[in-house]
Amino acid sequence: MPAAYPNTRLRRTRATAWSRAMHRETVLTPADLIWPLFIIEGQGQEEPVGSLPGVSRWSVDGIVARAKEAIDLGIPCIALFPNTPPEKRSDDGKEAYDPDNLMCRAIKAVRDACGNDIGILTDVALDPYTSHGQDGLLDDAGYVVNDDTVAVLVDQAINQAQAGADIIAPSDMMDGRVKSIRMALEMGEHPNVQIMAYAAKYASAFYGPFRDAVGSGGLLKGDKKSYQMDPANGDEALREIALDIDEGADSVMVKPGLAYLDIIWRAKEAFGVPVFAYQVSGEYALIEAGAAAGVGDRNALLMEKLIAFKRAGCSGVLTYHAPDAARLLNG
Ligand code: PBG
């Protein structure tokens, strides 16, 4: 007997496809995917987003068609983002709580066409509606004020809930907004409307193509570092997440995704709540650009990144790759 043979050969279980399938620890299914969609005015309109190859803005009828596509693919939820016409953007972002805004019309159209066959998640923050591109109201010095902004975000959230949104997702990073929105939903007879808090949202360089898609990028002066988190901080993310759970969030989100897998893992370990990741626009664009530059097989690259979120502890992922990933999974 040669003495050097190991007892344990981890390669044994990797040798065949059936064995690899049997030992796989995590799975990705279409039910893990949330599909973000950008809305524009008009009828029959599709407008490709230059910085997000393969992603378009759709008029409301196109959003309904995408929602039906999502149902067919087994994707349980869509996330809606409006590209508000420039003339409707203002310093105070009041379009956000107009019951006839683009967002509300899209929510109602999807609900009318699809009933409860799909979840509708709506983003709460003022940036698609403000003339300055910030997520809240500004004081004279250009600082985003907290409490007055929260009051407007509550109006925005209730407006979305009244139109039929299932999940309110505050992405603004104001202090105390989850509590205020939860209270308003309860008092406004929307006890079953969920809150998915963008609890740990970082001031990231990966949001560029999204700001292009909703038309806020060119308007934005300065940055969002006085409310979004410092990418250097992890303990602070756990404090943000703890607060949002305490304030009534049903689930929490970490954003961006891949550079923050440690935060996802820590959040899941510490709180055991449903954690979602937002694989943001810049992450999507990098995969597409990398594949186009010959870095590797595009489908393999995107699926490897998505399974990483599951391995890290996510319940699901918001990703612009949702329809393609679902098609790949459905074979
Ligand atoms: C709005 C919001 C942003 C994103 C989601 N909601 C942009 C920002 O905070 O500037 C980014 C999503 C993406 O990059 O895909 N506050």
From TrEMBL:
<comment type="subunit">
    <text>Homooctamer.</text>
</comment>
<dbReference type="InterPro" id="IPR013785">
    <property type="entry name" value="Aldolase_TIM"/>
</dbReference>
<protein>
    <recommendedName>
        <fullName>Delta-aminolevulinic acid dehydratase</fullName>
        <ecNumber>4.2.1.24</ecNumber>
    </recommendedName>
</protein>
<feature type="active site" description="Schiff-base intermediate with substrate">
    <location>
        <position position="255"/>
    </location>
</feature>
<dbReference type="GO" id="GO:0006782">
    <property type="term" value="P:protoporphyrinogen IX biosynthetic process"/>
</dbReference>
<comment type="pathway">
    <text>Porphyrin-containing compound metabolism; protoporphyrin-IX biosynthesis; coproporphyrinogen-III from 5-aminolevulinate: step 1/4.</text>
</comment>
<dbReference type="InterPro" id="IPR030656">
    <property type="entry name" value="ALAD_AS"/>
</dbReference>
<feature type="binding site">
    <location>
        <position position="240"/>
    </location>
    <ligand>
        <name>Mg(2+)</name>
    </ligand>
</feature>
<dbReference type="GO" id="GO:0004655">
    <property type="term" value="F:porphobilinogen synthase activity"/>
</dbReference>
<keyword id="KW-0627">Porphyrin biosynthesis</keyword>
<dbReference type="GO" id="GO:0005829">
    <property type="term" value="C:cytosol"/>
</dbReference>
<keyword id="KW-0460">Magnesium</keyword>
<comment type="similarity">
    <text>Belongs to the ALAD family.</text>
</comment>
<feature type="active site" description="Schiff-base intermediate with substrate">
    <location>
        <position position="201"/>
    </location>
</feature>
<dbReference type="GO" id="GO:0008270">
    <property type="term" value="F:zinc ion binding"/>
</dbReference>
<keyword id="KW-0456">Lyase</keyword>
<dbReference type="Pfam" id="PF00490">
    <property type="entry name" value="ALAD"/>
</dbReference>
<keyword id="KW-0479">Metal-binding</keyword>
<keyword id="KW-0350">Heme biosynthesis</keyword>
<dbReference type="InterPro" id="IPR001731">
    <property type="entry name" value="ALAD"/>
</dbReference>
